[in-house]
Amino acid sequence: MGAQFAGLTYEQAVRKYAPTVTGVCVMRLQNYADAEDCFQNTFFKLLTKAPSFVDENHLKAWLIKVAMHECSNYIRKNRRALSLQALPTEPSYRTDDAYDVSWALLQVKPGYREILYLHYVERYKVKEIAAILGKNPNTVKVMLKRGREMLKKEYGGDDV
User: Fold this and answer.
1) CB-based contact 118:64 (threshold 8 Å)
2) What's the CATH number of domain 100-160, 1.10.10.10, 3.40.50.300, 3.30.2000.30, 2.60.120.10?
3) What local confidence, expressed as pLDDT, does residue 81 receive?
4) Model pTM score
């Protein structure tokens, strides 16, 4: 029997958390090709390091933290500008009334983007975000508030 990660096989963990890791990498790098590299490195580390996890929440938090670290290393190593111009200006799909929130988040500064992404897309609470990012919960609250203000300024509305 292969390695288990919080009760999941490696393949199950990849299937279950691929959207999360992809989202984190795309939000951080703003480039799909670069995000794919960091995605692969994240899951390679899961396989090769085979850490033990208390539960699936611990596994998910570990994957997010490793993905962010991989993206930071990628940016540092490549020292090139990763810009929104590499992405299409509009998503290739639409929901009934609005574009996916991830496209709006790409317009926000990186530090705020990550916190907004973890809060709204991954549904983490402030204390959990603080633990994942190694920040003070009050700092996360302030950045979440400022990030919301940036989204309101960019897109209008009060329902952010």
Assistant:
1) yes
2) 1.10.10.10
3) 47
4) 0.70
